[in-house]
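Appendix C: a fully annotated inverse folding record. The material below is reproduced so that readers can follow the format used throughout the book. The structure is listed first as tokens, followed by the designed sequence.
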């Protein structure tokens, strides 16, 4: 939760920032914590991810006035604060401890409700008003679940939210293996185990095998980084044998029937 906040807020605070997140800045500066000692030099990865999610969501909101966005595993993500168009209905879904932390800094409201539930507890779906369309986001979430649970969740959403959309991010298999073996980001912070990894060239095949109720699947690599060697990502994306080994942002449109 603080790792992603660190990367978003530090990018936003730069004078040459390409991503602005005032709410993240406020939370970041209000927490007395040695971010750099724990997480190292900010790398802008989570700012890139949030920006790509925002760029996909804003046109969807314009096309679906009064639609519903469901943010699974919301943590301290501030996408509602960045993208609110005054009409969207928003559900922030997370486990009790995470919602308790969130509510210290981000209060719920009539159009931005907090749902205290695991994403894997499908009863959160009963809270969704789907008449004007549904867009589900899951930033930095699915890789923490076993593969069979990811398939179960996506299939359930496709059946429930016909014509809706889902956006999530993935890590490649090699990175998943590193986290399972124990990946130290710094001497003070070890990345949590991430059991689900998938290579970019496998994504559509796997999703369609899990669930027949899918209309389209798109994926693309992260677009920009400030640190080396991650900055090579956009160039590596043009080399097929290497492109499949990059993390990805995935957008799925569920079938209407």
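Designed amino acids, in order:
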């Amino acid at each position: 939760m603080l790792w992603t906040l660190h990367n978003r807020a530090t990018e936003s605070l730069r004078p040459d920032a390409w991503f602005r997140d005032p709410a993240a800045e406020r939370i970041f500066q209000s927490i007395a914590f040695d971010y750099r000692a724990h997480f190292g030099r900010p790398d802008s990865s989570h700012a890139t991810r949030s920006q790509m999610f925002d760029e996909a969501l804003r046109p969807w909101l314009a096309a679906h006035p009064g639609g519903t966005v469901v943010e699974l595993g919301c943590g301290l993500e501030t996408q509602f604060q960045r993208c609110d168009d005054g009409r969207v209905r928003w559900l922030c879904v997370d486990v009790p401890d995470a919602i308790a932390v969130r509510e210290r800094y981000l209060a719920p409201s009539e159009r931005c409700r907090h749902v205290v539930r695991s994403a894997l507890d499908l009863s959160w779906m009963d809270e969704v008003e789907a008449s004007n369309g549904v867009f589900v986001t899951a930033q930095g979430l699915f890789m923490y679940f076993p593969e069979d649970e990811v398939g179960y969740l996506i299939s359930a959403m496709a059946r429930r939210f016909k014509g809706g959309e889902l956006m999530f991010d993935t890590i490649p298999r090699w990175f998943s293996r590193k986290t399972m073996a124990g990946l130290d980001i710094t001497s003070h912070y070890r990345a949590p185990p991430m059991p689900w990894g998938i290579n970019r060239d496998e994504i559509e095949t796997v999703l369609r095998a899990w669930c027949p109720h899918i209309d389209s699947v798109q994926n693309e690599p992260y677009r920009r980084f400030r640190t080396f060697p991650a900055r090579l990502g956009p160039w590596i994306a043009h080399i097929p044998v290497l492109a499949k080994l990059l993390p990805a942002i995935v957008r799925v449109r569920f079938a209407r029937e």
